[in-house]
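R.M. (postdoc): so does anyone remember the format we settled on? I'll just put the structure tokens first.
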């Protein structure tokens, strides 16, 4: 390099701009008029899965009230639950309801949902929550893990573009909800320093409830009202459940789910890696059995 060459003058650095907050999707983003009804209408398993999901999401305000009351001593958590988590969950319900009513207009969604909610709301009580607020956040991580992997599976199973778009939006929301619950757990647990045995107990209790609570109630009401529709083949409820659990369970991204479930335990990386594979195998067998 010529030591007498004139210096290279660089343009002044541009001031760093603040990153704009991400805009959350709305129902206006989904063009329900573009739904390819023929591609999905005769897919009975998707009918059951989408209607039952729409019921559970639409009833999330009941859970919100319980959780807000449970975390009244933690205004940041209560505020997020009431002003972000609940509106997004209810939006999931409205979007799924609109999709269902577009594809299956003969199904009486409103009446079936009312029957579901009458039973479901009586089972959603503050007493069902973990007494320790940090452990309830662990339990919520389990629920959000389940919903995130469920909607990813529905997205991958979707034969219809609008449904693929919708389930991807919901999946993304559920992953973000998991991250919030996990962050709040870490903040609360920094003072509590709960043992791994207690954390594992909360994980196990909520895992055991996943298959026998919300989804079973919703599916039973979807099944009951579908039986009343003209021209429908009468299939025993137990047979429907078994087929759906096998259909979805065999396709769930269990490796992703197990990674999410293990995070609250704070295991050393080597130990976490060592137990991931056998735990994935056990979880898949439990779901599809």
């Amino acid at each position: 390099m010529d030591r007498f060459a004139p210096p290279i003058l660089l343009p002044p650095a541009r001031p760093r701009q603040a990153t704009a907050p991400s805009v959350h999707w709305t129902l206006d983003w989904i063009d329900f008029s573009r739904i390819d009804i023929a591609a999905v209408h005769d897919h009975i398993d998707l009918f059951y899965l989408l209607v039952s999901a729409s019921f559970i999401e639409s009833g999330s305000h009941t859970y919100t009230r319980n959780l807000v009351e449970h975390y009244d001593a933690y205004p940041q958590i209560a505020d997020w639950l009431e002003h972000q988590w609940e509106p997004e969950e209810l939006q999931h319900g409205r979007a799924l309801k609109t999709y269902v009513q577009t594809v299956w207009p003969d199904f009486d969604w409103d009446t079936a949902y009312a029957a579901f909610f009458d039973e479901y709301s009586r089972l959603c009580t503050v007493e069902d929550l973990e007494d320790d607020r940090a452990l309830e956040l662990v339990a919520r991580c389990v629920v959000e893990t389940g919903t995130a992997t469920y909607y990813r599976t529905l997205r991958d199973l979707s034969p219809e573009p609008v449904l693929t778009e919708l389930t991807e939006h919901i999946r993304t929301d559920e992953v973000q909800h998991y991250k919030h619950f996990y962050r709040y757990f870490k903040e609360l647990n920094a003072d509590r320093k709960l043992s791994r045995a207690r954390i594992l107990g909360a994980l196990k209790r909520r895992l055991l409830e996943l298959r026998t609570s919300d989804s079973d109630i919703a599916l039973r009401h979807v099944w009951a009202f579908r039986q009343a529709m003209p021209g429908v083949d009468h299939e025993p409820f137990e047979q429907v459940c078994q087929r759906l659990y096998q259909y979805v369970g065999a396709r769930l991204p269990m490796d992703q789910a197990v990674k999410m479930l293990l995070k609250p335990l704070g295991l050393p990386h080597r130990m976490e890696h060592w137990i991931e594979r056998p735990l994935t195998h056990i979880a898949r067998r439990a779901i599809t059995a």
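R.M.: ...and that's the designed sequence above, right after the tokens. Also worth knowing: The chain has a mean pLDDT of 86. The CA atoms of residues 52 and 215 lie 7 Å apart.
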